Structures are given as structure tokens and as C-alpha cells.
Automatic annotation (TrEMBL):
The lineage of its organism: Bacteria, Bacillati, Actinomycetota, Actinomycetes, Pseudonocardiales. It comes from Amycolatopsis lurida NRRL 2430. Keywords: Cell cycle, Cell division, Septation, Sporulation. One of its GO terms (cellular component) is cell septum. Pfam families: SsgA. Belongs to the SsgA family. Its main location: other. This is Sporulation protein SsgA. It is found in: Cell septum. GO terms for biological process: division septum assembly; sporulation resulting in formation of a cellular spore.
Length: 150
């Protein structure tokens, strides 16, 4: 974990709650090359072992949440990855940063993150659920019941 004061953690692994949360600051890039710091809460929960949630402080009352694969985030630390709405890759020319691009119907946003902070977050999630154990945490009966018509 970096010593940067912008990286704060809240470890909620207690009393059966298998959740890890941390807050970090990503750089939000504008098309003209300017950027602004944006606070982001990263969350991992063993009830959804394949996913990472990112809660963005968009400066509006509406919460902005993106959910994507934990594996996508991990792979993007080392090589470009992602084919859909989320793309992650090492920053060209800056091996200490990671670029995250989020595509929505209204356009796309580009963020950069400290690779060390993301690595620390991922290692903490692996303390909860190892990648090879993810499938054993899925409640398939619950997931199937969500597909049934109401």
C-alpha cells in the first residue's frame, strides 16, 4: 500500500461479514489533458466473489457505481484487458499507474490509478477469497432464483 494519505482502508472482515473496502483517489482526465482528483471507494464482498464495485464521488446526489471483474482489474495491472464497457491497462510511459476507461451510452471517462494501491486492494481481497476458490462462494440456488419470473 502506498503511504499516500489519499489511500484509506476500512476492513469490514468481522462477524461473518466478508467484505473489504478502501478509499483511494483516482485522477479523472478531461479531453483537454487536464485532470482532477476523484475519490473512489473500492469494495469486494465474498457473496459476489468475482466482482469489484467502484463507488465514484461524482459530486452529485446520485451515486455512481461501476461493477466489474476482479480478474479484469488484476490482469489490467500487467497488460491491456477488457472488451466491453470497462478497459484496464498499464499507463503508457508510466509503469506505476494504471488506466481505467469506462464506457457508457453518453460517452467514456478515463481515470488513472496508482498501481500499488490497486495491487494492495487486490491482495486484501485475495485474503478473503483466493481466485481459485471463487466458485465455491457462489450460492447457485440464490442466483437461479433471481432468474425465475416473479
Amino acid at each position: 500500500m502506498s503511504d499516500d494519505a489519499d489511500f484509506r482502508t476500512r476492513n469490514d472482515i468481522s462477524a461473518g461479514a466478508n467484505t473489504y473496502r478502501c478509499t483511494t483517489v483516482l485522477q479523472y482526465w478531461l479531453a483537454d489533458g487536464r485532470y482532477f482528483p476523484t475519490e473512489v471507494d473500492l469494495q469486494y464482498n465474498s457473496d459476489d466473489p468475482f466482482a469489484v464495485k467502484c463507488h465514484f464521488d461524482a459530486g452529485t446526489p446520485a451515486e455512481v457505481v461501476w461493477m466489474f471483474s476482479r480478474e479484469l482489474l488484476a490482469d489490467g495491472l500487467f497488460a491491456p484487458t477488457g472488451e466491453g464497457d470497462v478497459k484496464v491497462r498499464p499507463c503508457p510511459g508510466d509503469p506505476l499507474s494504471v488506466e481505467i476507461i469506462l464506457w457508457a451510452p453518453t460517452g467514456h471517462t478515463r481515470y488513472t490509478a496508482d498501481a500499488a494501491d490497486l495491487t494492495t486492494f487486490l491482495f486484501r481481497t485475495y485474503e478473503i477469497v483466493q481466485p481459485e476458490d471463487e466458485v465455491s462462494y457462489v450460492d447457485f440456488d440464490l442466483e437461479l432464483s433471481r432468474l425465475e419470473p416473479r
